[in-house]
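Person: Please comment on this record:
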Amino acid sequence: MDITEHTLRTARHTTHYLASGPAEGTPLIFVHGWPELAISWRHQLPVFGALGFRAIAPDMRGYGRSSVYPRHEDYALEPIVADMLELLDHLGADRALWVGHDWGSPVVWSLAAHHAQRCHGVANLCVPYNALTERLSLIDRGLYPEAEYPYGQWDYMAFYQENFAKAVADFEADIPATVRALFRRGSAEAVGKPARTAAIRRAGGRFGGAGRAPDLPLDTGVLTPEEASQYAAALARNGFFGPDSWYMNHAANAAYAARAPHGGRLALPVLFLHGAYDTTCETMTSRLAEPMRRDCADLAEVVVASGHWMAQEQPRAVNAALARWLGARFPQLWRV
């Protein structure tokens, strides 16, 4: 099944997106995270397009060929959700199935919480519901003693708050090397040990005092050389200010979440995919998934033997889990 490129321009925002499958198919919209692109879903789009869905993956704001903005507050969840509602209107549909990963997950959770009438159901990879809002209270203090790791695995988020310009500069110093350093497979050997993201402030940055990413070989279990080049070109064109600014709106995002109807509890069908080797969004033994289990009435959970870049590292497992859930919960929405 072919993947085609499209652009939606409105008075407030431009969204570039990829699409696969029949125009009349049920929209199945895949929302990427940091620091990715619509191509992060390249393994999912043709599969679900061939199954009869209108499979869509936008470049989120700050990324690719979608709009880039100059202020941190432009990257809060509320305006990003508005981007997605514009996209859904453009597709001519009342509702969609939504799938998110990394920062795309809070976008999808927010759509479910604030606009349930625009959702058939939602699925998310790695980041559970309300995990970022409640993250500090859910830190595993057995693994991250407060005296040594006050922010636990979320230390890197505090680094953005304290040293935003340096964080951006370090990522931009050698963007191809940054891509190679970030997009790496998970490892079972890392499970049960502090995540690398837990000591960023102490190290003086994501890459320590080097001020740039190390020159690592490409992990071809996640990206091909061509795909790595696509990521690097897009990030070089737009820079890291926009992507990193997604981390600068915790207070605004928490206030937005607090305004959700029904206390934020979700009644619609939800699927969550745990990354067994994701040491930052560690949901296997910590309490990180507790808010999701508390607030989702119709929740299915699947464990994938993967690190954080799940849809790219283990696409067959992700596709199988999504297809099983879609078949069980939404047989009426299939077009084949």
